[in-house]
Amino acid sequence: MLVVLIAAPTMRAANNNLTADRAWKPFFTSFRAAVKKRDRAALRTLMSADFFSSGGNSEGAEAAFTLWDDPHVRGWDAFNRVLSQGTVPKAAWWNAGRSQYIGRVAPPAANIRRNVKRGVINWYAIFEFRDGRWYCTVFNQCCD
Prior knowledge:
CATH topology: Nuclear Transport Factor 2, Chain: A
CATH class: Alpha Beta
Mean pLDDT: 86
Distance between the termini: 61 Å
């Protein structure tokens, strides 16, 4: 008799959470170093293909780099400030109308919806665990 065991969805979710937790620290360390050095080649590998940055730019890393280079925007400095404040697990309200990914948000104050709606924070970043690895998916000037 052949017995097939199928992992329950909650067991798979728990394994995915554990994998994401283990992968987070090395990813975030690499990501922060790449932003600090403005290492575009490294950042391209750490940002999602559908990466979004504010300023009315199209999706993607190249549009974001152009925006961050603007001396009036000072996006690189803003990104460093946001990342230096750390991250927290992404609140459920961030996923409204989107597929569910394990995620993190920086700065922690951006995880409180009213802070985003009221423009209490200037910039925020979102990171998502997709297909077994972390990506930065959003760096947005709040709240355009």
